[in-house]
């Protein structure tokens, strides 16, 4: 497997090609649209698959991006990698991110975001009812994916969590006493950003050139630190996940960088130990940071080789109806 990130440059995820030329090179059929959500907001959606008959699709993968990200640019390269492995991949821009409506970076409540995901992913699944369906979430998107699973029990064939926000690292939390003042700040100044957290981007992508690439996204909403109400909501979501993750009962793969200073790897261990899933795997990668696509080439290949192998295996079993749960496993590579 060769992840498309290796063809990117610090100026463009498509290297020297246009986006359309990049799709053609990788034989990718791409669609995008806007979905009107329950609040009347325009939510940007898109999908990728190999440009051939849909009868050979192995499954559907619904991707949820993280905070201060979007479904395009670098996230799109992972979508293409999964699509090239034979899957239909779909994703949306969260409210306040990418091309979607919303105040940039402002997520005072997570429930409307979860509702958007359910609405779009249900539509995609209804169009391909015979395909096994998997959720894939990165960072905040991992927490959202868990919330989707909890809201739709029995409706997903598997869950992949990459650097998931199961708990916020103490190295990333606001300094005392600012964390204690968050409820007051969220109530009286919900969009206040100055108190909330340490810088995110510099501790997410290990390779410097990828940080520069992220910063050059022409559509990126440079909202920086989460506002007070959003930061408080992140803490609430982490606590909710800790209290309810034992209800998750789907095949689960968790991949996490051991040196992740944004989302705590110990919280990932807690979730892995707590979920009801009999088929669950946790892989902690020594030396790796928060965004695993931001690692050097050999690390990216290791992580995404693991993800694609797991997806292919679970999709094949789901299609044939084979039930063969694996043991609970934590692996340090």
TrEMBL record:
<dbReference type="InterPro" id="IPR022742">
    <property type="entry name" value="Hydrolase_4"/>
</dbReference>
<dbReference type="Pfam" id="PF12146">
    <property type="entry name" value="Hydrolase_4"/>
</dbReference>
<protein>
    <recommendedName>
        <fullName>Serine aminopeptidase S33 domain-containing protein</fullName>
    </recommendedName>
</protein>
<dbReference type="InterPro" id="IPR029058">
    <property type="entry name" value="AB_hydrolase_fold"/>
</dbReference>
<dbReference type="InterPro" id="IPR051044">
    <property type="entry name" value="MAG_DAG_Lipase"/>
</dbReference>
<dbReference type="InterPro" id="IPR000073">
    <property type="entry name" value="AB_hydrolase_1"/>
</dbReference>
<feature type="domain" description="Serine aminopeptidase S33">
    <location>
        <begin position="56"/>
        <end position="296"/>
    </location>
</feature>
């Amino acid at each position: 497997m060769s992840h498309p990130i290796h063809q990117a440059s610090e100026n463009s995820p498509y290297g020297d090609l246009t986006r359309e030329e990049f799709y053609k090179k990788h034989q990718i059929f791409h669609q995008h649209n806007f979905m009107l959500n329950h609040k009347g907001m325009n939510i940007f959606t898109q999908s990728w698959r190999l440009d051939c008959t849909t009868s050979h699709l192995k499954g559907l993968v619904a991707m949820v991006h993280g905070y201060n990200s979007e479904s395009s640019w670098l996230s799109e390269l992972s979508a293409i990698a999964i699509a090239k492995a034979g899957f239909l991949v779909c994703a949306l821009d969260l409210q306040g991110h990418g091309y979607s409506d919303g105040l940039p970076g402002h997520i005072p409540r997570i429930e409307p975001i979860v509702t958007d995901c359910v609405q779009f992913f249900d539509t995609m699944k209804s169009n391909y009812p015979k395909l096994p369906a998997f959720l894939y979430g990165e960072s905040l998107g991992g927490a959202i994916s868990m919330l989707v699973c909890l809201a739709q029990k029995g409706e997903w064939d598997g869950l992949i969590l990459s650097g998931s926000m199961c708990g916020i690292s103490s190295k990333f939390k606001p300094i005392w006493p600012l964390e204690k003042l968050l409820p007051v700040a969220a109530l009286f100044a919900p969009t206040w950003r100055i108190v909330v957290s340490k810088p995110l981007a510099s501790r997410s992508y290990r390779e410097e050139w990828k940080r520069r690439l992220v910063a050059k996204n022409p559509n990126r909403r440079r909202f920086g630190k989460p506002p007070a109400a959003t930061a408080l909501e992140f803490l609430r979501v982490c606590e909710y996940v800790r209290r309810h993750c034992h209800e998750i009962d789907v095949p689960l793969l968790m991949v996490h960088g051991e040196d992740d200073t944004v989302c705590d790897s110990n919280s990932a261990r807690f979730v892995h130990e707590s979920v009801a899933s009999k088929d669950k795997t946790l892989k902690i990668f020594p030396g790796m940071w928060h965004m695993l696509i931001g690692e050097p080439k050999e690390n990216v290949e290791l992580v995404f080789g693991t993800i694609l192998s797991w997806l292919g295996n679970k999709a094949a079993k789901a299609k044939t109806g084979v039930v063969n749960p694996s043991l609970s496993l934590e692996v340090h590579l």
